[in-house]
Amino acid sequence: MAGLTKEMKEAFGKMKIFPVATATKDGTPNVVPIGVVELVSDDTIWITDNFMNKSLENLKSNPKIALYVWGPEIKGCFQVKGHATVKTSGRDFDEMKATLNKKNPALPARSLIIVKITDVFECQPGPNAGNKIL
């Protein structure tokens, strides 16, 4: 598993909305904006599924996922790829749901997507664009 650097973690913390990409088993892509994303360790991301449909179905048959980290307050940009597991019960799910309910009880928190980071790629324009960082 790849662990994010200090600078990457700081950039991650500044993001408001994350573009999250999944694909069907046969490779049809899907990307959605997700607002409830948390870096819980150097190599693990939690994504709360409040309203996912296609993305959730994709993850059930193809656990590969990618997130893009870039914005006006962020120096540089990078893409995180990982392997996702969908949870609808258990300790981690309960913790996510309790935390979200404190912040916004109107959100349903239907499932927790646990992403183990496998790779990180440069997406800054230039000669290193697309290169693997971690």
TrEMBL record:
Residues 4-122 form the Pyridoxamine 5'-phosphate oxidase N-terminal domain. It comes from the Archaea. InterPro entries: Pyridox_Oxase_N, Split_barrel_FMN-bd. Pfam families: PNPOx_N. This is Pyridoxamine 5'-phosphate oxidase-related, FMN-binding.
